[in-house]
Design goal:
The complex is a heterodimer of chains A (about 180) and B (about 950). Chain A is mainly beta. Chain A has one domain: Lipocalin (Beta Barrel). In chain A, strands 1-3-4-6-7-8-9-10 form an eight-stranded antiparallel β-barrel. The longest helix of chain A is centred in the first third of the chain and has 14 residues. Chain A is elongated, with a radius of gyration of 17 Å. The mean pLDDT of chain A is about 85. Chain B has a five-stranded antiparallel sheet, with no helix packed on it. In chain B, strands 59-65-64-61-62 form a five-stranded mixed sheet, with no helix packed on it. A five-stranded mixed sheet of chain B has the order 67-69-70-72-71. In chain B, a hairpin with a 6-residue loop joins strand 21 and strand 22. The chains are: A mainly beta (about 180), B alpha+beta (about 950).
Chain lengths: ~180, ~950
């Protein structure tokens, strides 16, 4: 288990193990989908996972999200999925993709409706951390939040190398969509 | 159906816009790290005060001078990427990714002795406040500051907005601004206390993530994560958001260029942001249109802009030319005529269509549908903003863009010809140059045409160019008949006899001083002298004598446009700057006189590949910045700048020099001269020169650099040094030598003089002595006495008599023989006195005894001849010799002397004394030795001691 993962685990534990501090507005993802799309000239690849986990503490502005890499389903063939896990993502070695950090904007949970926030933190994919600012829309409805986010991942930035021949089939830039609901703990 | 067409048109225009957004671009020159830096990527760039570019990489520092790369690696931090660079008086500060801080001074890494904790996270920016205190931001750990070698750290506890700091900059007042995740922190440090003022969204900042800060002319330029750029007045803190419509994502870096900002973004390339509310323009940096991440944009001292994009390649560009390509126009991209209108629109024609580039979106040309399928070759805008459009075969059109009204004039309306090559005008008068003469059109009230042909005095009816100068003279460039000038209603022709080498005249222009310039087919440029034309050649020549356009710009340069180049000629100095392939100018192959000038003075050229704008506001540096980097002795650079005094054997001198010209580094040539050694300047393309074995002397090394191979007026950089002569050829050494020689000579002469005098004296003494001796020996007494003795002996003993005579004869012979000599051996002297004693013995019998007791060891000692003989003779002469009083003379050695001693029994009356005998002996010995002859007399004895000369 990598260092980052341990920190994440610790963070998640910390966040969930603080029931006493009821003034903390901690939300936990109850249902989350993460979807990606590689739109290469010769092939469109899509896959998604329902394994998205996450915690947001609106009082401190911190958050942590995680998804296990081998939970992605879809692809155009099972062979492709195997390649995804074994050759590109090396999911044995780097089982989780994570995003932890802080929210730049302050969210007023008392007001219902949509709010756009920027989540800033470390995106860890394939064991490589990148500092990212990811824009998300949060819909507040009582104690329930709907979080929607779209961002891109450059494979090169996460040290995922694609042989030249395959470049026409796998895009350099992957589009990621997140759709999650979270409830107050 | 109509709906479908509408949607199709919408889609098409959308696609067009997408496509066209890549249209405008300057030419980027690429500088790729050489092969030895294979795994190196450039992260930051900084130009130092000397002109060198310092590249921060993942693999140490690299110094770049336009041509060569030199790596500087701090041993302990070999593989740590460098993330920040800053130069101040201490040197070049280097911030590393792991929070370390380095300092490079004079090409060496300096050890800094800082107290306190450096960050462990990346140093992303360094700046200096008004007190010279160094500040740096660290990502996630707040701000750091160094004062008096102590490191201070500031975070939220000190009032810092957020510990995630991206950027740091110094404002005009010397305060430190830091951009964080939660707005701007304005910091100062006084009397050991930090003061932080926050500037956040609450104060009107458009975005609280501030990614870049840089101090600009109008205030602090602030780049943000999602809202583009704003400018903050550091005094009033007034915030002006200059990009309200920002859609290009996070700002990474900003460079303030002439009157615009170039904004590098994280994902959307470079955006040009005008400071005067101009539209945002995307700059095409990579023709492939690939995503480009910009790490840093920097403007250098020459006003070139550098792009660092985290790769092995640096890109640089300058403002000389901007290229407008219109791929959507396809094959018909070639521009035949171009016109910048007074209200900022740009009109241009291809072979079959007129286009307009509107003011608002300068990148999308709109076809002017009224002028489709028309071969337009000339464009002109008159004072009433009407467009005059000249065609091939189809006459002249007058177009009023506001009303859309078009009037067409052809030969039927009275113009001289339907092929209109050039249009000029002033006030309400329009001139057109055609393939059949010229027409003067008065447009003020109605339309009045006056035609001129060869019959009116025009050189030829085939006219390429009509030009009206500021004195309202009208000039015509003809095909085959030179230049025709219309002045006060009179035509005058200038051709071969007036200085032209070709009669085919394409271009006519007037510079800001009112000088008329023309160019002809294949014979270059001419200047109008008032009477005729004079050929004008730049110092380094024209690259192409076939000039398509010759245009004077507002800075008094002439733009010389030909098939493959756009050269800038300074007619005052004769310097010409060539611009071709290396500046992005390809086979542009423009039509003749295919140019226009906009309100700002920029010159637009129509080419085979769209338009090229020559930016007049670009400050044109005339000379490279020359610098002598190093003087080396025996190729070692241990000699610092201050030691220009060299010993005689430090005479293998090299100079390392450079002319910084990032604009076009390969074009730089040098000329050098070592004053005191070289008589003439030497032209060179090398940046290094060696002078082996220079003789001692004073030298001045001079170097000039030029980008045009022409040096007149070039600034000279010089370095003075001297090689001292060796000690044996210094003046003082000469003086000492001469003095010593002089003294030696003087002493020698003096001594010789003395010796000569001595010798002379001795000679005199000797002669005197010889004379005295001779005189004494031929003294009649001695002779008579000897003869009397002889008579007595003959009677008694004949045998003895013979012996006596023999001895006497021996005695005289010896006297004669020795008298010439200075000294003789003691042995010979003893033999002489032996003879003498024999002779005297016969006379005085036993009354006279001579005892000689000289050990054999002294036999070879020297003695002036007849010394002892004389002393014995003196004794014989001055003393009574009788039976009662016999005389005893002893000759013995006493210490170093020979003593001649006799018992004293003076005669009452002296035998007549020569008087000089003894004193002569004394003075002769004085010449030979320092020891004196000693004479002592007691009651009983008289002793003379003469020194033994060994």
């Amino acid at each position: 288990m990598s260092k980052q993962l341990r920190i994440l685990f610790f963070l998640v534990l910390m966040l969930s193990a603080l029931p006493g501090r009821s003034q903390d507005n901690i939300f936990q993802v109850t249902a989350g989908t993460i979807h990606f799309k590689s739109d290469a000239p010769l092939e469109l690849i899509e896959a998604s996972s329902n394994d998205l986990k996450g915690l947001i503490n609106f009082t401190s502005g911190s958050f942590a999200f995680s998804v296990s890499v081998n939970s992605f389903q879809g692809f155009n063939s099972s062979l492709q999925r195997e390649h995804f896990n074994e050759n590109y993502m090396e999911s044995e070695k780097f089982p989780k993709a994570t995003f932890t950090g802080k929210i730049i904007e302050t969210v007023d949970l008392a007001t219902e409706g949509d709010v756009t926030i920027r989540a800033k933190g470390k995106l860890n994919i394939h064991g490589i951390e990148q500092e990212r600012i990811i824009r998300s829309t949060i819909n507040v409805k009582g104690n329930k939040l709907t979080i929607k986010s779209t961002f891109t991942v450059l494979l090169q930035e996460h040290n995922i190398t694609i042989p030249k021949v395959v470049q026409q089939k796998i895009a350099e830039e992957i589009y990621v969509t997140i759709d999650a609901t979270a409830e107050k703990k | 159906m109509n709906w479908f067409i509408f949607r199709l048109t919408l889609l098409a225009s959308y696609l067009l816009i997408l496509f066209e957004s890549f249209a405008q671009s300057p030419h980027f020159r690429e500088h790729t790290l050489p092969a030895e830096f294979r795994n190196t990527i450039i992260l930051k760039i900084q130009q130092d005060k000397n002109g060198f570019m310092w590249l921060a990489t993942n693999n140490g520092l690299i110094r770049f001078d336009g041509i060569s790369y030199k790596q500087f690696v701090q041993d302990s931090l070999h593989r740590t990427p460098i993330t920040a660079l800053f130069e101040n008086k201490h040197g070049l500060w280097i911030g590393y990714e792991d929070g370390k801080l380095g300092l490079l001074k004079d090409e060496r890494f300096v050890k800094t002795s800082l107290r306190g904790q450096l960050p462990s996270a990346e140093i992303n920016a360094i700046a200096e406040d008004e007190k010279g205190q160094l500040w740096f931001s660290s990502y996630g750990e707040g701000l750091f500051m160094i004062a008096d070698d102590s490191i201070y750290r500031f975070d939220e506890r000190h009032g810092l907005n957020d510990v995630f700091a991206y950027s740091i900059a110094t404002d005009a007042k010397g305060q430190i601004w830091a951009g964080t995740d939660n707005g701007i922190a304005i910091c100062s440090f006084d009397n050991g206390e930090v003061k932080i003022t926050q500037l956040t969204v609450a104060d009107g900042l458009p975005d609280n993530i501030v990614t870049t800060l840089s101090n600009g002319k109008q205030g602090m330029i602030v780049g943000m994560e999602s809202r583009g750029v704003c400018i903050i007045d550091p005094r009033t803190k007034h915030i002006e958001h200059i990009t309200p419509q920002w859609t290009f994502g996070s700002v990474k870096t900003i460079a303030e260029w002439t009157d615009d900002l170039w904004v590098g973004t994280a994902l959307k390339g470079i955006i040009e942001v005008g400071l005067n509310n101009q539209p945002l323009t995307e700059i095409t940096i990579d023709q492939s249109g690939k995503l480009s991440r910009t790490h840093q944009l920097m403007i250098d001292n020459e006003r070139n802009l550098w792009v660092v994009s985290g790769t092995r390649t640096l890109k640089s560009t300058n403002r000389t030319f901007t290229f407008y390509r219109f791929p959507s126009l396809g094959e018909a991209n070639g521009v035949q005529a171009v016109l910048a209108s007074k209200n900022g629109e740009l009109w241009f024609s291809t072979r079959s269509q007129l286009y307009m580039l509107p003011v608002e979106n300068g990148d999308v040309p709109t076809p002017v549908k009224q002028f489709a399928n028309l071969n337009i070759i000339s464009l002109f805008e008159d004072e009433s903003s009407r467009l005059w459009i000249g065609t091939f075969d189809n006459g002249l059109y007058c177009y009023e863009p506001k009303t859309g009204r078009i009037t067409r004039y052809t030969e039927q309306n009275g113009i001289v010809n339907n092929n209109i090559l050039s249009i000029a005008g002033k006030g309400s008068t329009i001139w057109i140059a055609t393939l059949g003469g010229v027409s003067k059109i008065e447009t003020g009230s109605g339309f009045r045409v006056e035609n001129f042909t060869t019959e009116s005095g025009l050189g030829s009816n085939f006219i390429y160019k009509v030009f009206i100068d500021r004195q309202d003279r009208v000039w015509f460039g003809t095909d085959g008949r030179g230049v025709t000038l219309l002045n006060d209603g009179v035509f005058k022709n200038f051709s071969l006899q007036d200085g032209l080498k070709s009669n085919i005249v394409y271009c006519i222009t007037e510079d800001i001083r009112g000088q008329i310039w023309i160019s002809t087919s294949n014979t270059g440029i001419y200047r109008f002298t008032g009477k005729g034309f004079q050929s004008f050649s730049p110092h380094s020549g024209l690259r192409d004598l076939n000039i398509a356009s010759l245009v004077a710009d507002p800075k008094n340069n002439l733009l010389v446009v030909s098939r493959q180049s756009i050269d800038v000629l300074n007619p005052k100095t004769g310097n010409i700057f060539y611009h071709s392939q290396e500046m992005g100018i390809g086979e542009i192959d423009p039509n003749i006189n295919n140019h226009t000038q906009d309100d700002a003075g920029n010159i637009w050229l129509g080419t085979q590949f769209g338009l090229i704008r020559y930016n007049v506001s670009n400050t044109f540096q005339e000379w490279p910045v020359t610098r002598i980097n190093k003087m080396l002795v025996y190729l070692s650079d241990n000699v610092t700048d201050t030691t220009a005094n060299l010993a005689h054997d430090q005479n293998h001198i090299s100079f390392d020099y450079i002319g910084f010209w990032y604009h076009d580094p390969q074009e730089v040539s040098y000329r050098i001269k070592l004053e005191g050694y070289d008589r003439e300047w030497t032209d060179s393309r090398n940046r290094f020169v060696t002078y082996p074995s220079l003789p001692p002397g004073e030298y001045t090394f001079k170097v000039e650099s030029s980008a045009t191979s022409y040096f007149k007026g070039a600034p000279t950089i010089s370095y003075q040094f001297q090689i001292h002569p060796p000690f044996y050829s210094t003046p003082w050494f000469y003086t000492v030598c001469v003095t010593i020689t002089g003294i030696a000579l003087f002493v020698f002469i003096k001594r010789r003089e003395r010796n000569l005098k001595l010798r002379e004296k001795m000679e005199k003494e000797k002669i005197n002595f010889q004379f005295q001796t001779l005189k004494s020996q031929v003294n009649p007494h001695f002779l008579f006495n000897s003869f009397n003795t002889l008579i007595a002996v003959i009677e008694q003993d004949q045998e003895t008599a013979v012996e006596y005579v023999e001895k006497l004869s021996d005695f005289y012979r010896n006297i004669l023989q020795y008298r010439e000599q200075d000294v003789i051996s003691l042995e010979k002297e003893l033999a002489l006195i032996d003879d003498y004693y024999f002779l005297q013995l016969k006379r005085y019998r036993n009354n006279f005894t001579l005892t000689v007791n000289i050990p054999d060891a002294y036999k070879h000692a020297q003695i002036p001849p007849l010394t002892l003989q004389l002393l014995i003779e003196n004794a014989v002469k001055h003393n009574i010799i009788s039976k009662e009083k016999p005389l005893h003379v002893d000759v013995v050695v006493q210490k170093d002397f020979i003593a001649v001693r006799n018992n004293l029994q003076r005669k009452m009356e002296y035998e007549r004394s020569t008087g000089v005998g003894l004193s002569n002996i004394i003075s002769r010995f004085r010449l030979l030795t320092t020891r004196e002859v000693e004479i002592s007399e007691t009651d009983s004895h008289f002793t003379v001691m003469v020194p033994i000369l060994m």
